[in-house]
Specification:
Layout lengths: L3 E3 L2 E3 L3 E7 L2 E11 L2 H19 L3 H17 L1 H12 L3 H23 L4 E4 L5 E9 L2 E5 L7 H12 L3 E5 L5 H11 L9 E3 L4 H10 L5 E5 L2 H13 L3 E5 L4 E5 L5 H13 L9 E7 H16 L19 H16 L3 E4 L3 E2 L7 E2 L2 E4 L6 H4 L6 E7 L2 H9 L6 E5 L3 H10 L4 E4 L19 E2 L9 H4 E9 L1
Parallel strand pairs: 7-8, 7-10, 8-9, 10-11, 12-13, 12-19, 13-18, 17-18, 19-20
Antiparallel strand pairs: 1-2, 3-4, 5-6, 6-22, 11-21, 14-17, 15-16
Helix pairs in contact: 1-7, 2-4, 3-4, 4-5, 9-10
């Protein structure tokens, strides 16, 4: 059984929980400890005690530790990628790719530890100089989701440590394996005891303890809108710093002048790869009427070519849905779409394979209206709704008509429309003739409206959340 990591020690929890492979529900990956609120409190106390020591470490010490972590992740990318695919359901190439990204994130923030900047300014008053510097926030609580079990923890943990904060990390219950593997690597990186802590367990116990404890100075959360709202409310009550990444109902606009094959490939990759379980997935395809019929036909043909199978099987394009609950949710929305009058072009069937798993064929709904629930609510599965648009202006209006604003895309060869779309699309990230799902690790990630709250994640912009600014006035 794999234990929690608290104050530099591996500790048993109050219970152990089996980690089940969604590609083969008969395959138990391992058993992982679950903590309760009291053990979460121990981790918080350890981080709180270690925070001043880690804050006083040199940039070189922090850079060396993060570089060591990143190097080991990259050296073990195939092994760790296999674990990721086995427990979350991504195909093996996707799993290895995500692990590679996690390693690169730690390497990037090793550099950022050495690139901390400040300002020295002249005061408007004679004989006074001003210094503006950044300092660690203190103790950071990190709550990560199940759909990117290596990359998202990496892009939260790495900057937290790079800027001198102590960390309490709670992974999603569905993916403890990747979290434990990452923690085991971090445990050998030379951090002081308590600077990093892994506490696995239920959100109602571990997560709530992190939200309620005033020793947690900042909370970074990625997950559902409902849970994110509760996190924001809890943080506001005690004035803790908070960063939220939540849902999306991301549109991809396809105009009449688009390259049809390129547009279809962008749509298929955005909507269906990683089984559609990406917050940046395009779940709404808004297609101009002149290309609409040809696009639907080609989209159906391309989707039929996709192979749905065990995540570790060579040639698999789409693995299983991550859990029985997620499969049930997907099937429920498929029924809702048909009840609302959308035309099911293909897919949406729970299928069997050689091993028992949560397999679902990718579904395309056509002739949808933006008022339908399947166009308003996040399904988080391989289900896409295609909405007809009269022209570019109508397409832009439909794209922006959502409570979310994480990612948006356009496929077009019109410079005029592309430039206008980049400026007027109401989203944090805009993709032009590339899939909406797929971002780089060295640039800011985040959205607007109901998708995000607080400063951006990743890249140099991560400093906004994981540091606080101090202004010093010096008489001279």
């Amino acid at each position: 059984m794999k234990h929690n990591y608290i104050a530099g020690q591996w500790l048993e929890g109050i219970a152990s929980v089996a980690n089940i492979n969604p590609s083969d529900t008969a395959d138990v990956i391992d058993y992982y400890a679950h903590a309760d609120a009291a053990q979460a409190g121990e981790a918080i106390a350890a981080a709180h005690a270690a925070a001043p020591l880690w804050a006083r470490s040199t940039p070189q010490q922090r850079a060396d530790a993060l570089d060591k972590i990143g190097s080991e992740i990259l050296a073990r990318r195939e092994e760790l990628g296999g674990l990721l695919s086995r427990e979350e359901g991504k195909t093996l190439p996707e799993g290895i790719g995500e692990v590679t990204r996690a390693g690169n994130i730690f390497k990037f923030f090793a550099g950022e530890a050495l690139r901390q900047r400040g300002d020295k300014l002249a005061s408007v008053r004679p004989g006074v100089e001003i210094e503006v510097t950044r300092e660690p926030v203190g103790t950071v609580g990190i709550i990560a989701p199940w759909n990117f079990p290596m990359a998202i923890p990496a892009w939260k943990i790495a900057p937290a440590l790079a800027f001198g904060n102590a960390v309490v990390f709670k992974p999603a219950e569905l993916v403890p394996g990747c979290a434990w593997a990452l923690a085991e690597i971090i445990s050998r990186a030379g951090l002081p005891a308590g600077a990093f802590n892994l506490v696995m367990g239920r959100g109602s116990q571990v997560g709530q303890a992190m939200l309620d404890d005033r020793r947690i100075d900042a909370i970074s959360f990625t997950g559902s809108v409902a849970t994110g709202t509760r996190v924001a409310q809890a943080a506001a009550q005690r004035l803790a710093k908070v960063q939220l990444e939540m849902g999306g109902k991301n549109p991809m606009v396809v105009l009449d002048d688009a390259d049809l094959e390129l547009a279809v490939e962008c749509a298929v990759q955005s909507a269906f790869f990683s089984t559609g379980q990406r917050c940046t997935a395009s779940s709404r395809l808004i297609v101009e009427q002149g290309i609409y019929a040809r696009f639907i036909k080609r989209m159906r043909e391309r989707t039929a070519e996709l192979r749905i199978d065990h995540a570790l099987t060579a040639g698999t394009d789409i693995g299983p849905v991550a859990s029985a609950d997620q499969l049930e949710q997907d099937l429920r929305y498929l029924a809702i779409g048909q009840q609302e009058g959308a035309r099911l072009v293909c897919g949406g069937e729970a299928v069997t394979r050689a091993t028992p798993g949560y397999y679902l064929t990718p579904a395309i709904f056509a002739d949808c209206s933006n008022e339908m629930r399947i166009c308003r609510e996040e399904i988080f599965g391989p289900v896409v709704a295609v909405i007809p648009a009269r022209d570019y202006e109508h397409a832009l209006e439909l794209a922006n008509d959502t409570e979310f604003g994480l990612a948006t895309g356009i496929c077009s060869n019109s410079l005029k429309h592309v430039q206008h779309f980049k400026r007027h699309a109401q989203a944090g990230m805009v993709m032009v003739n590339v899939p909406t799902a797929g971002v780089d690790y060295h640039v800011p990630f985040g959205g607007r409206k109901g998708s995000s709250l607080g400063s951006r994640e990743q890249g140099s912009y991560a400093a906004e959340f994981y540091t606080t600014v101090k202004t010093a006035y010096v008489g001279c």
